[in-house]
Design goal:
With about 375 residues, this protein is α/β, with parallel strands linked by helices. The protein folds into 2 domains: about 170 residues, Rossmann fold, CATH 3.40.50; about 200 residues, Dehydroquinate synthase-like - alpha domain (Dehydroquinate synthase-like, alpha domain). Helices cover about 45% and strands about 10% of the residues. The chain is built from 14 helices and 8 strands. The strands form 2 sheets. The chain has a 6-stranded parallel sheet with strand order 1-8-5-4-2-3, sandwiched between helices. A two-stranded antiparallel ribbon has the order 6-7. Strand 6 and strand 7 form a beta hairpin.
Length: about 375
Amino acid sequence: MDNFTFHNPTRIHFGRGQIAKLDRELPADARVLLLAGGGSIKQNGVYEQVKKALGSRAVFEFFGVEANPDYDTLMKAVEICRKEKVDWILPVGGGSVLDGAKFVAAAVPFTGSDPWEILTTQGTQLKTALPIGAVLTLPATGSEANGASVISRRAIKEKLAFISPVVFPKFSVLDPETTFSLPPRQIANGIGDAFCHVMEQYLTYPAAAAVQDRYAESILRVLIEVAPKTLANPTDYDARANLVWAATCALNGVISVGVPQDWATHTIGHELTALHGIDHARTLAIVLPNLMHVQRGTKRAKLLQYAERVWDIREGTEDARIDAAIAKTRAFYENIGIKTKLSDYDVPASVASEVAKRLASRGVTAIGERGDLTPAKVEEILRLAA
């Protein structure tokens, strides 16, 4: 296991009725930007709970944050914050809203010439950001308890990420009941996203990190078990609560400490979203099984461990067990309603070479846990996904 320093500063309020904790968490004189998506929070009762908890504080509202939040949209929120001297950002929504809030929080005090630099420098230059509190309404990204954000810029067909400790939420409210009214597609996307988050940190090579491995495997098994239950019965509180917590634990930093990480599936998937607007989780489902196949040589030990501990595959040759584990992974996505082929999304096979060229043009030529996943391999992965 590698050396590591671990600190997660986000305070979590989990369970029914916890939105009321906003009144304790936010200063009485806070000037708050409430950031949200398309307005569903006004239909499911969440907005009413939030406004009640905020009381007489000065609140400015910005709705319209998209799935895969767009830079140009978020810059409008930045302008409001600067004009109204906002000093707290309160995203109420899913991972896209939370990611957008992190960018807004970082961009408001940003002193560089162009806030897009926050993305092009991966957040490495950030020194400060407005404080963030969050109310999560869609379990998926883990953004409620980490310092990562992914932002799209549709005008130039780019989708980039940044990571910084200054944008960790100070607190997050996770009430599973706020997710009951979500459509099945969004819940399936959340399950699929969380599953791949774990895989990016787990399916690399052995690092003698027994706790991290077993914890990762337990999250994967919970997702496999709870997925059909929570999709079939959205108001089953226990099933949905376990999904919400699994999605948070998938990317709050615990399973990533002291171990190698991959993130190639996300790197490739972001390109598919930027070019064709495919839901983020669905790009991961397209890429992951084929990446597992192409990288089976360097991932062999962990693939066999994954097959045994997550899918209970113990019979057959090593190659047969790996093949079975990859097939189980593909079937998991298909069974929750997420298609795994480019053709399912009317995307031509030629996207394989296009994505490879885009990555090469930016110098992204050695991704994955060993830095051995080249643009040529990216093209191979996507051609297998056709």
